[in-house]
Design goal:
The chain has a single domain, classed as OB fold (Dihydrolipoamide Acetyltransferase, E2P), CATH 2.40.50. The protein is mostly beta strands and 82 residues long. Strands 1-2-3-5-4 form a 5-stranded mixed barrel. Strand 2 and strand 3 form a beta hairpin. The protein contains no helices and 5 strands.
Length: 82
């Protein structure tokens, strides 16, 4: 089963590639403090096109290039755009 993640598009400067920021929260097992972590993924976008600020769903796939291991599955348009 492939990983599915939801994140926000932060860059679309290269053709057919978007950079998606995925944030997660978890609780420290010893101190019980909530810790925030984020990671940027390079995502292949061929048919579905995303713009900066869009919420997207990405899914893990076989390696497309050296750094790209995810593809764009679904684009949730950002409701705060004007």
């Amino acid at each position: 089963m492939a990983k599915s993640l939801i994140g926000k598009v932060v860059s679309v400067k290269t053709p057919k590639t978007a950079i998606v920021l995925v944030k997660r929260k978890f609780r420290n097992p010893m101190y019980h403090k909530v810790i925030k972590r984020s990671k940027r993924f390079k995502v292949h976008q061929d048919k579905i096109i995303a713009q900066v600020g869009d919420e997207v769903m990405i899914e893990e796939t076989k390696p497309i290039s050296k750094d790209k291991h995810f593809i764009l599955i679904k684009n949730f348009k950002n409701k705060s755009k004007k």
